[in-house]
Amino acid sequence: MKICIISNLYPPFVRGGAELIAAMEAEGLKKAWQHVFVISTRPANLHVHGQMVWRTGLWTSTRDEVGEVEVIRFNPVNLYYYLDDFKFPSFVRLFWHLFDIFNVFSYWKIKSILLKEKPDVVITHNLMGIGFLIPLLIKRLKIRHIHTLHDIQLSSPSGLIVLGQEKAWQHRFFRAIGYVKIMRFLMGSPEIVISPSKFLLDFYSRDKFFHKSKKFVMPNPIKGLASVAKQSTDNLELIYLGQVHRAKGVLELIKNFKQIAEPKIRLHIVGAGPELFRAEHLASEDKRIIFYGWLPHHELGKILPQMDIVVVPSLCYENSPTVIYESLSLGLPVLAADIGGTAELIREGINGWIFPAGDFGILKNKIKGLYKEKDKIGPMADNCRRSVAAYNLDNYINHVLKIIGEDTND
After folding, report:
1. Do 201 and 195 form a contact (C-beta atoms < 8 A)?
2. Residue numbers of the domain that contains 401
3. Most CB atoms within 10 A, among 106, 108, 153, 351?
4. Is the pLDDT of residue 283 over 80?
């Protein structure tokens, strides 16, 4: 079977977990002896270590390989490249979004690729930044279409709704201009829709998306299970992994952590983002709070054996955070806010703990209680790994191929 995967970003161009999931899926399908290729984007010019490794015209596509999977990339002509959006004010981003919805250049570019490659199935992931005319194109070309959900960007362009700000002016504005209706029309009803969480599938059902699609809840895949060689200490070591952004709850985490007097409880923060300076300023007088900035995977591996608990204090409606899957696969329990689909992965006292999103008073009490019962945390490692063992990549790929095959026989 020839399968095309379309994703707005693809390694080495990475912003979050969605493009990593797309890459895992592509590599898994390749390993399962499927003929797979990827269509994604690239900036107009690419620099590596200060040197330009390619310079192509806006209309030129390039081909490279990632993990033995062929990737066809092109620059989707717009005001700026998707990864550069943080550099521009909101009114510029508004025009970028409007052009992105109806990006005719991407439509014709991808059409030419699909007509040449002739895939049997197209699997789409996040489309913001590559164009939302693509589902319409796939339907017109009469190619089977599977869409994988990752966030709420089809209902809110930011892909982000913060607790208590569900009716903020940005969301009201885009609904007023008919954004949801437009996206509902352009997305249509792909043959199959896959969601990592029940929360996200229910969210889109309420907005009347995908009413004719066959829908499946399939937790995101993990590459495998691993044991962390735990370094036992008297301290309780907490770690936050992710973007340093107000909506992720990290600023409130720091403020409330400072109110815990116990000197043997420490908080490690790994990540970068727009609020990093603010976070460092908040923590400046507390030596128990340690910042690392962004770390590559091999450097992170040196820190994780020292950790006891991963904290996910989100204030935004998460889908199914990759950091939770990765932490549990390593045997690290997770202390997470109950918001969006996060709680679907956590079993209280078995592989982690849940607290009401935004209630940092309860979070503080949970942390203090866990310190007093620290001896019970280590033995949870096997439970953590078992809780995600079924989500290994081979099982995920087998399930994808099964539902495609089942539909073939309908």
Report:
1. yes
2. 2-221+392-408
3. 106
4. yes
